[in-house]
Amino acid sequence: MTLPQTNLQLFHLMNELGFDVTSQQAVHRAYDIAKKLFGTCFRPCDKPFVCHLVGTAAALASWKQPVELINAGLLHSAYLFGDFQDGEKGSTLRRRHWLRDRMGAETEDLVYRYTLSKWGNAQNTQLHHQALADPKFSEVFIIKMADTYDELADYGILLSPNKRYPFGLLVDEQEEQALLAAIQDLISEEACRQFSTSLNYLRGGNVWPAGLQNERSSFYRVRPGIDDLRRGRLNRRFVKLRSKIKPITKAA
Predict the structure, then answer these.
(1) Rounded distance between C-alpha atoms, residue 125 and residue 130, angstroms
(2) Which of 9, 167, 179, 217 is the most exposed place for a label (fewest CB within 10 A)?
(3) Is residue 1 over pLDDT 70?
(4) Are the CB atoms for 125 and 186 separated by under 8 Å?
C-alpha cells in the first residue's frame, strides 16, 4: 500500500473511505496544528516530518479507525517534539488546555497517553496482552503501529542505516511474528498483510543508491535560510528598508 503523504492525498483517501465532511474538517484542523509545530522538522531519512504525520493518519484512516484516533495520529508527537514557541517541554497543562480547546478532549487525551507510553523494553507478546486487557492502551498501541507502518511502507528507513528497526522487526523473527499477531488481532487482517508485505520487501536489501543514505538516526530540525547568505537581524532590516526607497531622479 502507498500511504498518502500530503493533506490532499489524505483527504482523497478519506473521501474514498466514506468519511463525512465533519470528520475531514476535524482532520484539517489537526493538520493545520501539525504544520505549525513541525514545519521545519524531518525524519532521519530526510522526509518532512509533516509527511510522516500524514502517513500515520492515513494508515489509521485506511484501518477505519475513529476520527479522534486519526487526529491523534497527526499530532502524536506534539508534546514530544512539537515547537510551541513557549519555552516549555512536554505535556504541560498550558499546552494540554490549548490543544484540548482546538481538537477536543478525546483527541488530546490520546496524544497525552501516547506521550506517556514506553515501548523500548517490552516484549511484543506482553504488549499484545496489555492491549487486550486495556482498551485505552489498545488505542495508543494502534497509533504506534500506524507510526511504525509509515516508516516501513515507503522504505525510507533504508536511507538511515543507523536507525534501529522498532519492535525487533527484521532482526528477531519471534518478536516480529508476535507483533504481526497483535496487529491482526487488534487492528485487522489487512493491516497485518500490509506490514508483512513491507517487511518482505525490506528483507531484500537496500533499494536506494548509496549516495542517498545518511548517518542520522533520529528526528532533526532545519534552520530556515541559507547560512552562506545569512545576515544579522539589523542588517536584514536595513536591506529591506533600502529596497523600499526609490531612487530620486533629478529633473532635467
Answers:
(1) 9
(2) 217
(3) no
(4) no
